[in-house]
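Q&A log
Question type: sequence-to-structure
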Amino acid sequence: MFRAFVREVGSGHPTDLVRAARRAQAAAFAVLAVPGLPLGALYTLSGPAALPPLWVAALAGLGALLAALVLRLARRAARDPAQPPARAVLTAALQSGGAPAVPFLLGCTLFAQPLAALALWALAGLGYAAAWGRVPGWVQAAGLRRA
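Response status: OK
Response body:
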């Protein structure tokens, strides 16, 4: 997988850079999100009190707000003129992996409330789709900056 990533970054083709950026994005999400699963399970074993629906909605709002902020910062990184174009795109992709990780990790704290956890994980899925969909635009903007 690492060889394919290096080959895609070095090829200079926009489609390869999109593929490499999406690999980096998925890896960043996994690095951030995977530890939340066992930690959430351990927290559930401690018998936490159930959160009222209003607090779950507040957590979902916080997760959405933080995910949007992460995507905004990733967009800024993608357009950084001080970075070489490919590096700017990969930096943005790595940062954008945090957008879905925020609501995912919040959902891991709510294993004791399965519907609340699923709602936050659905929000994480939307964040992942939003981040995934932005990569081609970042690559296109980097290509225009290079020209």
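Response note: The longest helix spans residues 114-146.
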